[in-house]
């Protein structure tokens, strides 16, 4: 019997397969593949859990953002109301100030008018007195002047008492 290279290759293959089966390589490969599949399943479930957790965090942050925006809007509205109240108060105080200043100015104008009228009256009285003195001095003699003086002194005494 003549054995060629094919026969020896076949015998080597059979010995190799027997050795692989004897050493339980298919079990190890299956076990390794099962472990790898379990690891992949665990990674997938972990990724799913992390994704759900991330979605929850996202929803929570979106809710907080909306709350913060609402709070900011309330703060802005309150600031606008306060600014409007301050502006209205300032306008009212300005109007009151202007009204007081106008009233004071009108009062000063009336006082000035009164002073001017009194000054004109006093000047008119002084002028009338000076004219009366000149007329009386030119028409009256010493006796008439003495009588008028005594009469004026008497009136002053009666009025003072």
TrEMBL record:
Subcellular compartments: Cell inner membrane; Cell membrane
Bilayer disposition of the protein: Single-pass membrane protein
Species assigned in the record: Gellertiella hungarica
Protein name according to UniProt: ATP synthase subunit b
Transmembrane segments: 6-23
GO molecular-function terms, A-Z: proton-transporting ATP synthase activity, rotational mechanism; proton-transporting ATPase activity, rotational mechanism
Assembly information from the UniProt record: F-type ATPases have 2 components, F(1) - the catalytic core - and F(0) - the membrane proton channel. F(1) has five subunits: alpha(3), beta(3), gamma(1), delta(1), epsilon(1). F(0) has three main subunits: a(1), b(2) and c(10-14). The alpha and beta chains form an alternating ring which encloses part of the gamma chain. F(1) is attached to F(0) by a central stalk formed by the gamma and epsilon chains, while a peripheral stalk is formed by the delta and b chains.
InterPro entries xrefs: ATP_synth_b/b'su_bac/chlpt, ATP_synthase_B_chain
Described purpose of this protein according to its UniProt entry: F(1)F(0) ATP synthase produces ATP from ADP in the presence of a proton or sodium gradient. F-type ATPases consist of two structural domains, F(1) containing the extramembraneous catalytic core and F(0) containing the membrane proton channel, linked together by a central stalk and a peripheral stalk. During catalysis, ATP synthesis in the catalytic domain of F(1) is coupled via a rotary mechanism of the central stalk subunits to proton translocation.
GO cellular component, one term: proton-transporting ATP synthase complex
UniProt-listed NCBIfam families: PRK09173.1
Gene: atpF
Family: Belongs to the ATPase B chain family.
Coiled-coil intervals: 30-107
Keyword Cell membrane carried by entry: yes
UniProt entry keywords in alphabetical sequence: ATP synthesis, Cell membrane, CF(0), Coiled coil, Hydrogen ion transport, Ion transport, Membrane, Transmembrane, Transmembrane helix, Transport
UniProt keyword Transmembrane present: yes
């Amino acid at each position: 019997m003549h054995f060629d290279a094919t026969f020896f290759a076949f015998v080597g293959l059979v010995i190799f397969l027997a050795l692989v089966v004897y050493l339980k390589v298919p079990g190890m490969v299956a076990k390794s593949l099962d472990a790898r599949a379990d690891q992949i399943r665990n990674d997938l479930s972990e990724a799913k859990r992390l994704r759900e957790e991330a979605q929850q965090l996202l929803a929570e942050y979106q809710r907080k953002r909306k709350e913060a925006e609402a709070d900011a809007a309330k703060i802005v509205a309150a600031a606008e109301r306060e600014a409007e109240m301050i502006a209205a108060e300032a306008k009212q105080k300005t109007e009151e100030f202007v009204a007081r200043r106008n009233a004071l100015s009108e009062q000063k104008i009336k006082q000035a008018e009164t002073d001017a009228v009194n000054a004109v009256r006093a000047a008119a009285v002084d002028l009338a007195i000076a004219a009366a003195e000149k007329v009386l001095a030119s028409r009256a003699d010493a006796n008439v002047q003495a009588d008028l003086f005594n009469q004026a002194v008497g009136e002053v005494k009666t009025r003072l008492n």
